[in-house]
Design brief:
The chain is mostly helical. It folds into 2 domains: 117 residues, Cytochrome Bc1 Complex, Chain D, domain 2 (Orthogonal Bundle), CATH 1.10.760.10; 90 residues, Cytochrome Bc1 Complex, Chain D, domain 2 (Orthogonal Bundle), CATH 1.10.760. The protein contains 9 helices and 5 strands. Strand 4 and strand 5 form a beta hairpin.
């Protein structure tokens, strides 16, 4: 799943949740013929992170039909373009961003995510289901096409996320959701980012950002170019990309780069050529567009 996302401000709808009521008055003409004021943007109240929520201990996938679906879902998210080539337009897997099979803290972990949906998302300007959120990633991050929301492949992906979330109370935001934001974003230096990329990133992602593949399978994903994610994906946004880099890169050395280095690197690679997501102009239809939105 697109991790920007994961970073959009949201409201979950569930029993015992905070209920936010807002007015959405219709435009009408008064007796004098003047138009009533346009409705104010929707005010989104963010649900606080619950530090008491923890990922469940590792456990074997059960046998039977549910276990089969969970295994299928795990295969899809870890080998996405190999298993669903008709729905993936680039060289990425879901776990190119959702690291360690979707369990790594600070890398858009899926632990607890099923219990947060349906939820209001400011980017779409509507209440989204988990299936819609998954398809958002297929279209934006995979530069592909949506899955059938009622089909077996979607059910398998959701089943895998549910397996990772077993025992996590619904409606409680886990600390691992999304990315760990950098609290005081520095002003990025793109030229320095290019130098850092050559020093710390090119050996894995290639000097041209095209990734490294062996036998048709990517060992390290492309960061830009036609086989990378679109400019409508979460990682095309500066703050999101810098946060991902800060805590997860270089691979196996997460947390070794400074805030400044992370912003410099992110500002460099997000501004390289990549596929265009045509519908991004319709994002944040109710207002609240972030300053780093593309």
């Amino acid at each position: 799943m697109d991790p920007s996302t994961e970073n959009d401000r949201t409201i979950g709808f569930f029993i015992g949740a905070l209920v936010v009521t807002f007015a959405a008055p219709l435009l009408f003409l008064s007796a004098s013929g003047s138009r009533a004021p346009a409705p104010a943007p929707v005010v989104v109240v963010e649900r606080a992170v619950d530090p008491g929520v923890r990922a469940p201990a590792p456990a074997p996938i059960p046998e039977g039909p549910l276990g089969d679906a969970i295994r299928r879902g795990k295969l899809i998210v870890t080998r996405t373009y190999e298993t669903l080539p008709e729905h993936v337009g680039n060289g990425l897997h879901c776990t190119s961003c959702h690291l360690e099979e979707g369990t790594r803290a600070g890398a858009a972990s899926w632990v607890g995510v099923p219990g947060m949906f349906p939820e209001y998302r400011s980017r779409s300007g509507r209440v989204d289901t988990l299936e819609r959120r998954v398809n958002d990633c297929f279209e934006r991050s995979m530069n592909g096409t949506a899955l059938d929301p009622t089909g077996e492949d979607m059910a398998a992906v959701v089943a895998y996320m549910g397996f990772l979330s077993r025992g996590v109370p619904a409606g409680r935001t886990p600390p691992d959701r999304g990315f760990r934001r950098i609290s005081s974003p520095p002003t990025p230096d793109r030229a320095h980012g290019a130098q850092l990329y050559a020093q710390k990133c090119a050996s894995c992602h290639g000097p041209d950002g095209a990734g490294v593949s062996t036998g048709g399978s990517y060992q390290f994903p492309p960061l830009w170019g036609p086989r990378s994610y679109t400019n409508g994906a979460g990682l095309a946004r500066l703050h999101t990309a810098a946060s991902f880099v800060r805590w997860n890169m270089p691979l196996g050395q997460g947390g070794t780069l400074t805030d400044q280095e992370s912003y410099d690197l992110a500002d460099y690679f997000i501004h390289q050529d990549r596929p265009d997501f045509a519908r991004r102009s319709r994002d944040w239809p109710r207002g609240g567009r972030p300053d780093d939105a593309r």
